């Protein structure tokens, strides 16, 4: 099962929090539902700025332990090459996960019904 090592921050980039999980979107939703879990409400962790996908649990745990010991400049050095503007990567993840799921065809107008309406 794949694991993710991630770094999230608040809107002012004051705090950097390193974590590890199996479902990144579910974890980010949890952070949104529990805004004062780690810090007060002014320092809400809500911006995913970095993540790595790792194949095995052992490798993920080793990477998590290593990144957790990094100083702030080391974490910033890791983030800046892949996300120089520190944009929230959550929107891209939600889009990507939506692309993989085939939308239901129920409720859509059929093409034949549209053709019949045009032909009449």
From TrEMBL:
Signal peptide: none annotated. InterPro entries: GIY-YIG_endonuc (IPR000305), GIY-YIG_endonuc_sf (IPR035901). Coiled coil: none annotated. Residues 1-77 form the GIY-YIG domain. This is GIY-YIG nuclease family protein. It comes from Mucilaginibacter terrigena.
